[in-house]
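During the reporting period, we have paired protein sequences with backbone structure tokens. One record among many follows, to show the layout:
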Amino acid sequence: MKNSIKTFGLVFGLALVVASPASAADLRIMTGPQGGSWIPLGGQFKDLFEKAIPGLNVQVFPGAGIANVRGIEEGKAEVGLANSISTADAMDGRKPFNKPHANVCNVASLYPQYFQFVVLADSGIKSAADLKGKAVTTQQVGNTGQVITKDFLEASGVKYSDVKVSHVGYTDSVNQMKDGHAVAFGLNTQAPAGAVMDLAAAREIKLIGQEDVYDKMLKLNPSYKLITLPKGTYPKQDKDIKVIGFYTHVVASCKLPTEEVYAMTKTIATNTKTLATVAKDIAALQPAGMAADIGVKFHPGAAKYYKEVGITVRSN
């Protein structure tokens, strides 16, 4: 933001946010890579926040989970989408972060994400251990999916240097898989992922489970969780698959005004149907889910909204 938004009063009705006039200001939101769901979700936030806070001008930029947290800490953005495992690492200064990030506050958890490691069915790859010397595609360095792909390979006994890694967006990764230039694709997003469905429409695929290496992955990052990718999520997936899971959540600069973040938090809570047009799991989101404790302190503005609906959260 060019300058902190001037303090302004907000008065809320039962279903309508009514704000006193505020000076025009820029709010920068960092989202995700091209081809993923975070960019259109950021577009929804732009529309909703500008309607809720008159005079607010929101700018939306592409980004990535780790990069977005760094961007807020360094003052390059005020709001971002992030992954709970990465943000929790940032709080304590664990790798890939080089120091504790004190200016990043939680706003709301939105939906679970699944780390998905996809191989071509005709590649002969039965586990990550079979990938030595093969071509693997994943997201750009700085994206949470890239970090988890690296951890998954290492936990499987495959060094990053043992494979030929391409760091590109979802669309390019899918094209590499379709053309046979890569045999494996690591990504984290919703399920089913549009990119994986696109690939499955052109090539038969198989998902690799992560349960066998989960304990080793925990040693690399204690925030990893093991969750279930239900059978039938993708074509010919005839059984449940255990994968690494975590939450997509909204983070904000702790320096943003309390009333502004209060307005954003309430706007998310009262517009879940609209947001679900981009991320379907948000349709069932309730304030209690938004306020889930993921080890990241809440912004005082978010805490104010949750207290209003009977939920106490940690904001310091």
Q: What stands out?
A: Residues 1-24 have pLDDT under 50 and may be disordered. The CA atoms of residues 70 and 195 lie 26 Å apart. The longest helix spans residues 38-52.
